[in-house]
Design a protein that fits this description.
The structure holds 2 protein chains of 2 kinds. Chain A is of the alpha/beta class. Chain A has 2 domains: 9-155, Rossmann fold; 167-246, no CATH class. Chain A has 10 helices and 5 strands; from the N terminus they run βααββαβααβααααα. Chain A has helices spanning 20-26, 32-38, 68-80, 89-93, 105-113, 144-155, 167-173, 198-201, 218-227, 232-243; strands at 9-14, 40-43, 56-62, 81-87, 135-137. In chain A, strand 3, helix 3 (68-80) and strand 4 form a beta-alpha-beta unit. By secondary structure, chain B is α+β, with helices and mostly antiparallel strands. Chain B has one domain (3-324). Helix content of chain B is 25%, strand content 23%. Chain B has an 8-stranded mixed β-sheet with strand order 3-2-6-7-8-9-1-10. A 4-stranded antiparallel β-sheet of chain B has the order 5-4-12-11, with no helix packed on it. In chain B, a hairpin with an 8-residue loop joins strand 2 (23-29) and strand 3 (38-42). The model of chain B has no long low-confidence stretch (mean pLDDT 94). Classes of the chains: A alpha/beta, B alpha+beta. The A-B interface holds A 28, 31, 34-35, 38, 148-149, 152, 155-156, 164-166, 168-169, 172-173, 175, 177-182, 188-190, 203, 214-217, 219-221, 223-224 and B 34-37, 39, 56-57, 66-67, 220-227, 230-231, 243-244, 246-247, 249, 257-258, 260, 263-265, 279, 312, 314-315.
Chain lengths: 261, 326
Amino acid sequence: MAKKDKKPVVGFYGLTGCAGCLLSFIFNENEIVSLLGMVDLAAFPFIKGKQGDKEFDIIFLEGVVCSNDDLDMLKKLRAKTKILVSLGACASTGCIPAYRNFIDEAKYLPLMYEKVHRIKDKDPKPIDAYVHVDFTIPGCPPNREEVKSFIKQLILGKTPRLYNDPVCVECKLNGNHCLLDEGKICLGPITRGGCDSVCTNGRFECWGCRGPCPDANYEAFIALIKDKGHNSRTLKERMQSFAGLKLPDELQIEDAPDYVG
Amino acid sequence: MTNFTLSKVDLNAFIKSLSKNFDVYAPVKDHVVDGGSVRFKVVSDAKVICLSENAYYPLKELFFRKKEVLFKYSEKGLEVPVKKVKSKAILGIRRCDLHSLANQDRIYMREVPDPYYIAEREKTLLIGYHCKKAEEYCFCGSIDLQGNADIMLYELPGNKFLVEVHSDNALRLVESLKKIFKKTDIVIDAESRKIEGSNRLQKKDVHSFYDNPGWQEGIDKCLSCAACNFHCPSCYCFNIHDEANVHNMKEGERIRTWAGCQLKSFTRVAGEHIFRDTRKDRFRHRIYHQLQYFKERYGTTLCSGCGRCIRFCPTKIDFIDILNRM
């Protein structure tokens, strides 16, 4: 990162989202003072009063692009920063808000959104659908260790890298019993790890919040889940929950009826 | 050496006695926390021990730690952590796991003496258990098993173990516990040393199969999750990375962690080149390392035939079946 004596100017911003990913930075409560000492924090909702209008070295952006306002803001932020980091699942995969892409509009509009006009602006999409993204920190929410490690690596002049192994790796290292072997639909083998297998550590199956593992063998995985007696609709819904937009286009899971809330 | 008998009723007294000088580990089945799988855990009571099932995760994690801080670095230099390790007595180790432990010892105590492994491993008392019958995926009978325990337990009729003693330390220990170890003339013959139904692997020499189309069936089912690596009692590969101290970035730790050859990241090098980029290359490599490459170098297979890589593979890829059909 930049010159030795100059701290990088860093901003945190959110589009449509729950702010949970911004918190994954703050959750480093024992290290946050040191982390803040390494950077010139110029923008952060809730903790930085004035959202400074300056040029940034790094912007961490959470949230999904759901409206015209989101897109305008995204484009402005991209123009203001050297490095854009998509922080968390919404920004990286579209996450739960993007599930709307897989549901017929007539099914959800009458429920509660009839007076919210901006819902018709556009289909929810992750930020890389619109602008170039330099780095991704996935997860719903991201692992706080990963956020910390990411900042450390940038400061040290390293290129932060995305964890590419499946969730199973950390799950095994954590000594867990395989939930697939217990008959559950665990998306661990097709999901990018780096989360320290936090869900399966608590014996809750992986729902794929960190997006697809680049080396996933979908055919084998789908066959395995069907072999265990689960129907393809359940599997498809689960795979679409957090990362539906990032699944390969050619992926064939038997078509299932739309989910109705 | 003389053989002894040990009544199963006295197993508890044996453990209590061992506990004075050792952390006593044994296989334990726990339905609540481990999904009903058997794990090596510290025990203080014989009634929790489960000898009827092989352990879900292998023993190696007690010596070749999943995460080892090799040293701390700072501007002052390097500081190697001093490990304070209580001696371990491990009870209920099957022949397959003894073979794997002998291979781990070969790599980490003799090939490249590793102080971290040696600190954990030395002064360990190994108490083996001879299982009579193979589980579904076992094939240890097809492997020329190496490795010895200090004490070996065989099932005898009448709720007893026959105790074979293989080291001087173990003999001193057994002789000091005269109340529970009774001398006997019973010996285990060659036939009783066999494990029933464990000869599944018929094609032991795999070198001519490299381009055999038979691999494809396994490759198609492989999720590349590396469960086979992490359940394997023999696999000994690792990664090393540095972790800077967030409070002072000029300091930090160099850390060693387990690695798995089924992952693309395993052979990724500078410039993003990946040597074994295809699932096929990775799938075959593990089996060749286990059954051929290690044997060419050290005269014994790395594989112990414990079958964990099949039993705990999510898709249950039976590479023994695949090899036999080649």
